[in-house]
Amino acid sequence: MIKRQDGWLAAQVGDELVMMSVDSGVYIGLNDIGARVWDLIETPRDLSEICSTLSDEFETTPENCRPEVEAFLAQLQQRGAVSLDA
What is the pLDDT at residue 86? Predict the structure, then answer.
């Protein structure tokens, strides 16, 4: 399951969702797809569910979406924004 970590503030700035960690001061800027993933994991979800939703909303398939979303979530995990629980 993928879930947000506590302590992150987010605000829409133009076409980008800007996030900041209250604890570490780390900033992250997300495009529209990244912002949608962030919205989706407001409630913990698994990767298949995220990719299925994204494939319905954007022009992709769950299979093509999966490696991109995995890489994106790994970056968010490195910055402390999400946890990836088995």
Answer: 57
Q: Residue 6: beta bridge partners? A: none
pTM, full prediction: 0.91
CB 50 within 8 A of CB 37: yes
Q: Among candidates 76, 69, 74, which has minimal Cα distance to 26?
A: 76
CA distance 24 to 32: 24
Q: What tokens were used for 76?
A: 């968010």
24, 26, 76, 25: which is closest to 50 by C-alpha?
76
Mean pLDDT for each 10-residue chunk of the chain (86 residues)?
Answer: 95 95 94 96 96 94 94 96 86
**How many beta carbons lie within 10 A of that of residue 64, not counting itself?**
12
Contact 6, 83 (CB under 8 A): no
